[in-house]
Design a protein that fits this description.
Layout: H1 2-29, H2 45-50, H3 53-57, E1 67-71, H4 79-86, E2 91-96, H5 99-111, E3 118-122, E4 135-141, H6 150-160, E5 161-172, H7 181-190, E6 193-200, E7 204-211
Parallel strand pairs: 1-2, 1-4, 2-3, 4-5
Antiparallel strand pairs: 5-7, 6-7
The structure holds S-adenosylmethionine.
S-adenosylmethionine is lined by residues 33-34, 42, 72-74, 77, 95-98, 101, 124-125, 141-143, 146-147, 175.
């Protein structure tokens, strides 16, 4: 009986590890957006244990009156806090490729009474509906690695960011598209951004870069 239990435990563990490995390999060989059907994981209480919006956004330097870009906003997990941080005179541009996620963000932002300072855009990162030199801080949480053409996305980001403006890139290991800090730093420096520091752990980290143009 004990032998049988051990065997089935071993098999379940093996298939769990196997599916994790194949999911991660698939995400890295062909970058793609997380399907919106899985959006519940973004607001899972376990995620919020290491992804508290106030703590995550705190070091990114958002402040009253700023124009902030939440690129790949998902369900708006961080959009609401960004809107609070920029205050009544600021603007948050929440961008996502998937309409159901923009709808969820709209609902969430509306419920917290900050919709007037959030502009929602259902579009891709390669062509943003924003003016040149108009953004003070861009935030990409668990998003950049999902984009097939990082250089194109970063060039567009540089266009909309003010000279010297900040980009915060944040990654977390439970995300199957997770990439380590060394990879993010390589992508950003190749795209012409200047490294400004790193915080957090290998498991969940954030990096700040400056737009050098
Ligand atoms: C893993 S989710 C993270 C969502 C949110 N930033 C968070 O951390 O809760 C990544 C999001 O980026 C969006 N995304 C991926 N590629 C994109 C692209 N090229 N342009 C715009 N959004 C994109 C996806 O649709 C998805 O909502």
């Amino acid at each position: 009986m004990l032998k049988l239990l051990n065997k089935s435990l071993f098999l379940s563990l093996g298939s769990a590890i196997g599916s994790q490995v194949s999911l991660r390999v698939a995400c890295h060989t062909q970058a793609r957006p997380m399907p919106h059907q899985f959006a519940k994981v973004l607001d899972h209480p376990l995620r919020m244990k290491y992804r508290d919006p106030v703590e995550t956004l705190g070091p990114f330097g958002l402040g009253p009156g700023m124009t902030v870009l939440d690129l790949g906003c998902g369900t708006g997990t961080f959009t609401v806090e960004m809107a609070r941080m920029v205050g009544e005179t600021g603007i948050v541009h929440a961008v996502d490729l998937q309409a159901p996620l923009i709808d969820q963000t709209r609902l969430r932002v509306g419920e917290t009474g900050v919709l007037n300072r959030v502009h929602l855009h259902c579009c891709g990162a390669y062509q943003l509906p924003l003016a040149d030199d108009s953004v003070d801080v861009a935030v990409l949480i668990a998003t950049l690695a999902e984009m097939p053409n990082k250089l194109l996305a970063l060039a567009e980001l540089s266009r909309v960011l003010k000279p010297g403006a900040r980009v915060a890139i944040s990654e977390e290991l439970p995300d199957p598209a997770y990439v380590p800090p060394v990879t993010v730093r390589k992508w950003l420096t190749e795209a012409g951004f200047r490294f400004g520091g790193q915080i957090g752990t290998f498991f969940c980290y954030s990096m700040i870069f400056f737009n050098e143009k």
